[in-house]
Design goal:
The protein has helices spanning 25-33, 46-50, 54-59, 78-90, 105-108, 120-133, 153-162, 186-192, 210-220, 236-247, 256-274, 276-283, 287-290, 298-306, 310-323, and strands at residues 3-4, 7-8, 14-16, 38-40, 44-45, 69-74, 95-100, 138-143, 167-171, 201-204, 224-227. It has 15 helices and 11 strands.
Protein backbone atom coordinates (compact mmCIF):
# COMPACT_ATOMS: atom_id res chain seq x y z
CA UNK A 1 0.00 0.00 0.00
CA UNK A 2 1.64 3.27 -1.10
CA UNK A 3 2.35 6.00 1.42
CA UNK A 4 3.54 9.58 1.34
CA UNK A 5 5.69 9.62 4.43
CA UNK A 6 3.42 8.03 7.03
CA UNK A 7 0.23 8.96 5.19
CA UNK A 8 -1.67 5.89 4.01
CA UNK A 9 -3.30 6.43 0.63
CA UNK A 10 -5.21 3.21 0.03
CA UNK A 11 -4.36 0.34 -2.31
CA UNK A 12 -4.37 2.33 -5.56
CA UNK A 13 -4.99 6.02 -4.93
CA UNK A 14 -6.50 8.39 -7.44
CA UNK A 15 -5.22 11.96 -7.23
CA UNK A 16 -6.96 15.05 -8.52
CA UNK A 17 -4.05 16.61 -10.40
CA UNK A 18 -3.56 20.31 -9.66
CA UNK A 19 -4.79 22.67 -12.38
CA UNK A 20 -4.67 26.45 -12.24
CA UNK A 21 -8.06 28.16 -11.83
CA UNK A 22 -9.81 24.76 -11.71
CA UNK A 23 -8.77 22.71 -8.69
CA UNK A 24 -9.65 25.21 -6.01
CA UNK A 25 -11.10 24.08 -2.69
CA UNK A 26 -14.79 24.03 -3.78
CA UNK A 27 -14.03 21.79 -6.77
CA UNK A 28 -11.63 19.62 -4.77
CA UNK A 29 -14.34 18.95 -2.20
CA UNK A 30 -16.70 17.82 -4.94
CA UNK A 31 -14.08 15.49 -6.39
CA UNK A 32 -13.39 14.07 -2.93
CA UNK A 33 -17.07 13.17 -2.60
CA UNK A 34 -16.92 11.29 -5.90
CA UNK A 35 -13.87 9.25 -5.01
CA UNK A 36 -10.66 11.28 -5.32
CA UNK A 37 -8.29 9.89 -2.69
CA UNK A 38 -5.62 12.59 -2.63
CA UNK A 39 -5.94 16.30 -3.40
CA UNK A 40 -3.37 18.95 -4.22
CA UNK A 41 -3.85 22.71 -4.33
CA UNK A 42 -3.46 24.79 -7.45
CA UNK A 43 0.20 25.64 -7.90
CA UNK A 44 1.32 28.60 -5.83
CA UNK A 45 4.21 30.93 -6.62
CA UNK A 46 6.89 30.86 -3.96
CA UNK A 47 7.44 34.62 -4.23
CA UNK A 48 3.73 35.23 -3.69
CA UNK A 49 3.73 33.17 -0.50
CA UNK A 50 6.76 34.97 0.84
CA UNK A 51 5.14 38.36 0.19
CA UNK A 52 1.88 37.12 1.69
CA UNK A 53 0.04 38.03 -1.51
CA UNK A 54 -3.69 37.57 -1.02
CA UNK A 55 -4.23 35.35 -4.05
CA UNK A 56 -1.33 33.08 -3.14
CA UNK A 57 -2.40 32.81 0.50
CA UNK A 58 -5.99 32.04 -0.48
CA UNK A 59 -4.82 29.15 -2.64
CA UNK A 60 -3.51 27.43 0.50
CA UNK A 61 -6.97 27.31 2.09
CA UNK A 62 -8.56 23.91 2.39
CA UNK A 63 -11.33 22.21 4.32
CA UNK A 64 -10.74 19.46 6.92
CA UNK A 65 -12.52 16.97 4.67
CA UNK A 66 -9.94 17.44 1.92
CA UNK A 67 -7.21 15.47 3.69
CA UNK A 68 -4.84 14.06 2.68
CA UNK A 69 -3.90 17.20 0.81
CA UNK A 70 -0.68 18.71 -0.44
CA UNK A 71 0.19 22.34 -1.07
CA UNK A 72 2.01 22.68 -4.39
CA UNK A 73 4.61 25.40 -4.81
CA UNK A 74 6.81 26.49 -7.71
CA UNK A 75 9.62 28.95 -8.26
CA UNK A 76 13.08 29.51 -9.68
CA UNK A 77 15.01 30.58 -6.57
CA UNK A 78 16.22 27.96 -4.09
CA UNK A 79 16.06 30.23 -1.05
CA UNK A 80 12.58 31.45 -1.98
CA UNK A 81 11.34 27.88 -2.34
CA UNK A 82 12.70 27.05 1.12
CA UNK A 83 10.91 30.03 2.64
CA UNK A 84 7.70 29.23 0.74
CA UNK A 85 7.79 25.67 2.05
CA UNK A 86 8.00 27.04 5.59
CA UNK A 87 4.97 29.27 4.93
CA UNK A 88 3.08 26.36 3.41
CA UNK A 89 3.92 24.10 6.35
CA UNK A 90 2.32 26.63 8.68
CA UNK A 91 -0.98 26.07 6.85
CA UNK A 92 -0.78 22.46 8.09
CA UNK A 93 -1.19 20.39 4.92
CA UNK A 94 -0.22 16.73 4.84
CA UNK A 95 2.66 17.21 2.41
CA UNK A 96 4.45 19.77 0.23
CA UNK A 97 4.49 19.18 -3.53
CA UNK A 98 7.09 20.74 -5.82
CA UNK A 99 6.02 21.62 -9.35
CA UNK A 100 8.77 20.84 -11.84
CA UNK A 101 6.35 20.08 -14.65
CA UNK A 102 4.22 23.10 -15.58
CA UNK A 103 4.96 23.79 -19.28
CA UNK A 104 3.19 27.15 -19.54
CA UNK A 105 5.41 29.72 -21.23
CA UNK A 106 5.02 32.50 -18.65
CA UNK A 107 6.10 30.13 -15.87
CA UNK A 108 8.97 28.55 -17.81
CA UNK A 109 10.34 31.88 -19.02
CA UNK A 110 10.74 32.93 -15.39
CA UNK A 111 12.64 29.76 -14.57
CA UNK A 112 9.88 27.87 -12.76
CA UNK A 113 7.92 24.70 -13.41
CA UNK A 114 9.30 22.62 -16.26
CA UNK A 115 12.18 25.06 -16.75
CA UNK A 116 14.03 23.12 -14.04
CA UNK A 117 14.21 20.20 -16.48
CA UNK A 118 16.90 22.23 -18.26
CA UNK A 119 18.94 22.52 -15.08
CA UNK A 120 18.78 19.19 -13.27
CA UNK A 121 21.52 20.05 -10.73
CA UNK A 122 19.52 23.11 -9.66
CA UNK A 123 16.35 21.01 -9.43
CA UNK A 124 18.14 18.59 -7.12
CA UNK A 125 19.61 21.39 -4.98
CA UNK A 126 16.21 23.03 -4.69
CA UNK A 127 14.52 19.80 -3.72
CA UNK A 128 17.13 18.93 -1.13
CA UNK A 129 16.87 22.42 0.37
CA UNK A 130 13.10 22.18 0.64
CA UNK A 131 13.25 18.69 2.15
CA UNK A 132 15.62 20.00 4.82
CA UNK A 133 13.50 23.09 5.49
CA UNK A 134 10.28 21.26 6.42
CA UNK A 135 9.19 18.44 8.68
CA UNK A 136 6.47 17.46 6.19
CA UNK A 137 6.90 14.87 3.46
CA UNK A 138 7.95 16.43 0.15
CA UNK A 139 6.76 15.12 -3.22
CA UNK A 140 7.59 16.13 -6.78
CA UNK A 141 5.48 16.40 -9.92
CA UNK A 142 7.44 16.57 -13.15
CA UNK A 143 7.65 15.38 -16.77
CA UNK A 144 9.72 12.94 -18.81
CA UNK A 145 12.22 15.65 -19.70
CA UNK A 146 12.60 18.90 -21.59
CA UNK A 147 12.21 17.43 -25.09
CA UNK A 148 12.59 14.15 -26.98
CA UNK A 149 16.37 14.46 -26.89
CA UNK A 150 16.42 14.88 -23.12
CA UNK A 151 14.07 12.32 -21.58
CA UNK A 152 16.07 11.98 -18.39
CA UNK A 153 13.33 11.05 -15.94
CA UNK A 154 14.85 7.72 -14.86
CA UNK A 155 18.01 9.44 -13.61
CA UNK A 156 16.07 12.44 -12.29
CA UNK A 157 13.81 10.21 -10.22
CA UNK A 158 16.78 8.42 -8.66
CA UNK A 159 18.47 11.68 -7.75
CA UNK A 160 15.28 13.16 -6.30
CA UNK A 161 14.81 10.05 -4.19
CA UNK A 162 18.40 10.37 -2.99
CA UNK A 163 17.75 13.86 -1.58
CA UNK A 164 14.70 12.73 0.35
CA UNK A 165 11.42 13.08 -1.53
CA UNK A 166 8.61 10.78 -0.39
CA UNK A 167 6.93 10.19 -3.77
CA UNK A 168 7.10 11.27 -7.39
CA UNK A 169 4.34 11.92 -9.94
CA UNK A 170 5.32 11.84 -13.59
CA UNK A 171 3.39 13.28 -16.52
CA UNK A 172 4.09 11.19 -19.61
CA UNK A 173 5.01 14.12 -21.85
CA UNK A 174 8.02 16.36 -22.30
CA UNK A 175 7.85 20.10 -21.80
CA UNK A 176 8.17 20.56 -25.57
CA UNK A 177 4.97 18.57 -26.08
CA UNK A 178 2.98 20.80 -23.76
CA UNK A 179 -0.36 18.90 -23.73
CA UNK A 180 -0.23 17.73 -27.34
CA UNK A 181 0.21 14.25 -28.74
CA UNK A 182 -0.16 11.13 -26.66
CA UNK A 183 1.33 10.61 -23.24
CA UNK A 184 4.20 8.10 -23.28
CA UNK A 185 3.99 5.86 -20.24
CA UNK A 186 6.99 3.70 -21.15
CA UNK A 187 9.46 5.75 -19.13
CA UNK A 188 7.01 6.08 -16.24
CA UNK A 189 7.02 2.29 -16.16
CA UNK A 190 10.82 2.26 -16.24
CA UNK A 191 10.96 4.54 -13.23
CA UNK A 192 8.45 2.42 -11.32
CA UNK A 193 10.19 -0.85 -12.18
CA UNK A 194 13.69 0.47 -11.49
CA UNK A 195 14.88 -1.71 -8.57
CA UNK A 196 16.69 1.31 -7.14
CA UNK A 197 13.40 3.16 -6.58
CA UNK A 198 11.80 2.64 -3.18
CA UNK A 199 9.30 5.51 -3.10
CA UNK A 200 5.81 5.47 -4.70
CA UNK A 201 5.64 6.38 -8.38
CA UNK A 202 2.39 7.87 -9.65
CA UNK A 203 1.49 8.26 -13.32
CA UNK A 204 -0.28 11.09 -15.11
CA UNK A 205 -1.42 11.70 -18.67
CA UNK A 206 -4.44 10.74 -20.79
CA UNK A 207 -6.22 8.72 -18.10
CA UNK A 208 -9.76 9.30 -19.31
CA UNK A 209 -11.69 6.18 -18.30
CA UNK A 210 -11.77 3.06 -16.18
CA UNK A 211 -10.33 0.79 -18.88
CA UNK A 212 -7.43 3.19 -19.50
CA UNK A 213 -6.76 3.40 -15.75
CA UNK A 214 -6.71 -0.38 -15.52
CA UNK A 215 -4.31 -0.66 -18.44
CA UNK A 216 -1.87 1.84 -16.92
CA UNK A 217 -2.06 0.10 -13.56
CA UNK A 218 -1.44 -3.37 -14.94
CA UNK A 219 1.00 -2.60 -17.74
CA UNK A 220 3.27 -0.16 -15.94
CA UNK A 221 2.78 -1.10 -12.29
CA UNK A 222 2.38 2.46 -11.02
CA UNK A 223 1.27 2.97 -7.43
CA UNK A 224 -1.60 5.29 -8.35
CA UNK A 225 -2.86 7.75 -10.94
CA UNK A 226 -3.30 11.50 -11.29
CA UNK A 227 -6.43 12.60 -13.11
CA UNK A 228 -6.17 16.08 -14.59
CA UNK A 229 -7.97 17.38 -17.66
CA UNK A 230 -10.38 14.42 -17.72
CA UNK A 231 -11.70 15.59 -14.34
CA UNK A 232 -12.40 19.14 -15.51
CA UNK A 233 -16.10 19.61 -14.86
CA UNK A 234 -16.29 15.83 -14.53
CA UNK A 235 -15.86 14.81 -10.87
CA UNK A 236 -17.75 11.62 -11.67
CA UNK A 237 -14.66 10.19 -13.37
CA UNK A 238 -13.28 9.10 -10.00
CA UNK A 239 -16.42 7.10 -9.28
CA UNK A 240 -16.32 5.61 -12.76
CA UNK A 241 -12.67 4.54 -12.53
CA UNK A 242 -13.12 2.99 -9.10
CA UNK A 243 -16.18 1.05 -10.24
CA UNK A 244 -14.31 -0.30 -13.24
CA UNK A 245 -11.25 -1.27 -11.22
CA UNK A 246 -13.45 -3.00 -8.64
CA UNK A 247 -15.64 -5.15 -10.87
CA UNK A 248 -15.60 -3.77 -14.44
CA UNK A 249 -18.95 -2.11 -13.89
CA UNK A 250 -19.85 1.18 -15.57
CA UNK A 251 -22.03 3.55 -13.50
CA UNK A 252 -24.88 5.28 -15.27
CA UNK A 253 -24.12 8.86 -16.29
CA UNK A 254 -25.32 11.30 -13.63
CA UNK A 255 -28.91 12.45 -14.23
CA UNK A 256 -29.60 16.09 -14.93
CA UNK A 257 -30.73 16.73 -11.35
CA UNK A 258 -27.41 15.53 -9.96
CA UNK A 259 -25.47 17.62 -12.44
CA UNK A 260 -27.44 20.76 -11.61
CA UNK A 261 -27.02 20.08 -7.90
CA UNK A 262 -23.25 19.81 -8.24
CA UNK A 263 -23.00 23.02 -10.27
CA UNK A 264 -25.12 24.81 -7.66
CA UNK A 265 -22.89 23.56 -4.89
CA UNK A 266 -19.78 24.61 -6.78
CA UNK A 267 -21.13 28.12 -7.27
CA UNK A 268 -22.42 28.51 -3.73
CA UNK A 269 -19.11 27.45 -2.21
CA UNK A 270 -16.93 29.40 -4.64
CA UNK A 271 -18.47 32.84 -4.14
CA UNK A 272 -17.44 33.13 -0.46
CA UNK A 273 -14.07 31.64 -1.38
CA UNK A 274 -13.08 33.96 -4.23
CA UNK A 275 -15.95 36.36 -4.95
CA UNK A 276 -18.76 36.36 -7.50
CA UNK A 277 -16.88 37.82 -10.44
CA UNK A 278 -13.96 35.37 -10.31
CA UNK A 279 -16.32 32.47 -9.69
CA UNK A 280 -18.42 33.24 -12.75
CA UNK A 281 -15.32 33.66 -14.88
CA UNK A 282 -13.63 30.44 -13.80
CA UNK A 283 -16.63 28.14 -13.80
CA UNK A 284 -17.39 28.95 -17.45
CA UNK A 285 -14.72 26.50 -18.56
CA UNK A 286 -16.40 23.73 -16.54
CA UNK A 287 -19.96 23.87 -17.88
CA UNK A 288 -19.13 21.72 -20.92
CA UNK A 289 -17.81 19.03 -18.60
CA UNK A 290 -20.62 19.20 -16.09
CA UNK A 291 -23.21 18.77 -18.84
CA UNK A 292 -21.22 16.55 -21.21
CA UNK A 293 -23.44 14.14 -23.10
CA UNK A 294 -26.63 16.17 -22.73
CA UNK A 295 -28.15 16.55 -26.23
CA UNK A 296 -28.64 20.02 -27.70
CA UNK A 297 -27.01 21.72 -24.72
CA UNK A 298 -25.21 24.44 -26.68
CA UNK A 299 -27.98 27.03 -26.26
CA UNK A 300 -28.11 26.45 -22.51
CA UNK A 301 -24.33 26.66 -22.28
CA UNK A 302 -24.28 30.01 -24.05
CA UNK A 303 -26.77 31.34 -21.53
CA UNK A 304 -24.67 30.05 -18.64
CA UNK A 305 -21.36 31.49 -19.85
CA UNK A 306 -22.88 34.91 -20.54
CA UNK A 307 -24.80 35.18 -17.26
CA UNK A 308 -23.53 38.12 -15.24
CA UNK A 309 -24.61 37.06 -11.76
CA UNK A 310 -24.94 33.89 -9.76
CA UNK A 311 -28.64 34.65 -9.38
CA UNK A 312 -29.00 34.55 -13.14
CA UNK A 313 -27.06 31.26 -13.32
CA UNK A 314 -29.29 29.72 -10.66
CA UNK A 315 -32.37 30.73 -12.66
CA UNK A 316 -30.94 29.14 -15.79
CA UNK A 317 -30.12 25.97 -13.84
CA UNK A 318 -33.73 25.85 -12.63
CA UNK A 319 -34.90 26.02 -16.24
CA UNK A 320 -32.45 23.33 -17.31
CA UNK A 321 -33.61 20.98 -14.57
CA UNK A 322 -37.26 21.61 -15.40
CA UNK A 323 -36.77 21.21 -19.16
CA UNK A 324 -34.29 18.38 -19.63
CA UNK A 325 -35.45 14.91 -18.68
Amino acid sequence: MPKIGNIELGDFPLFLAPMEDITDSPFRCICRDYGADVLVTEFIAAEGLIRDAVKSSNKMRFEPGERPIGIQIFGENVESMMKAAEVAEAANPDFIDLNFGCPVRKIVMKGGGAALLQDIPKMIRMTEAVVKSTSLPVTVKTRLGWDDAHKEIVEIAERLQDVGISAIAIHGRTRAQLYGGEADWTLIGEVKNNPYMKIPVFGNGDVVSGPVAEEMKNRYGVDGLLIGRAATGNPWIFREIKAWLADHSIPEPPPIGERVSVVRRHLENSVPYKGERATLHEIRKLYSGYFRGIPNFKTWRMQLVTAESTTAVFEILDQIEATII
